[in-house]
Design brief:
Layout: E1 2-4, H1 14-25, E2 31-33, H2 36-39, H3 48-65, E3 71-76, H4 78-89, E4 95-101, E5 126-131, H5 139-146, E6 152-157, H6 173-187
Parallel strand pairs: 1-2, 1-3, 3-4, 4-5, 5-6
Length: 189
């Protein structure tokens, strides 16, 4: 599974590294990568065209390294949205599904569903892992976006924000890993 990072942190961020390690423990190999803006230490994320080229390169590399494995793609926030935009534009039969670790539906404080318009053109199964306190995807809107998408599954992480923090005593990482594993087992036969 390719694993694209968000706009605020690269592939070596603690969330990304912990997620990849946890997925590996349950038999899911990940290929993490940085977008060019991260490599160049720029604050502003790449344009969609550059991000899409990067995602395509990661997909091609994963297929080259593990040609017999079923391939999924995933991303945290910006990385997930850019991955789904890429899939909406490029119908790839070699990608079996996409996982969103916090889909950034709208800017904080500006509820909207405009960023989800392309999802109707994604033809593979989609898993949305979303916190109920995510300021970049109010629960009622992400639920409304997912409902008409026939291939979408939405998992609610009660009390979690966009970083999947849900209070000092709640570790959401095992929930993310378990939900990912269970969903992959359902779609990969």
């Amino acid at each position: 599974m390719t694993l694209a990072h968000g706009a605020g942190a690269g592939m070596d961020h603690a969330f990304m590294a912990t997620l990849a390690a946890g997925l590996a423990e349950v038999g899911i190999a990940t290929l993490r990568f940085n977008f060019p803006f991260t490599e160049q230490k720029k604050m502003r994320p790449d344009t969609p065209a550059v991000a899409h080229q990067t995602i395509e390169a990661a997909i091609d590399k994963a297929l080259e390294l593990y040609p017999s494995f079923p391939l999924l793609i995933s991303g945290k926030s910006f990385g997930g949205r850019m991955s789904s935009q890429y899939l909406a534009l490029h119908q790839r039969k070699d990608v079996k599904g996409i996982i969103f670790y916090g889909f950034p539906l709208h800017p904080a404080g500006k509820p909207s569903t405009d960023r989800a318009e392309h999802l109707k053109d994604v033809k593979v199964p989609m898993l949305f892992l979303q916190g109920t306190k995510d300021t970049l995807a109010t629960w009622d809107l992400i639920e409304a976006v997912c409902k008409p998408l026939k291939k979408a599954s939405l998992v609610k992480l009660e009390g979690a924000d966009h970083s999947f923090k849900a209070g000092r005593k709640v570790d959401t990482m095992p929930l993310l890993i378990e939900a990912t594993k269970n969903w992959i087992e359902k779609i990969i036969k």
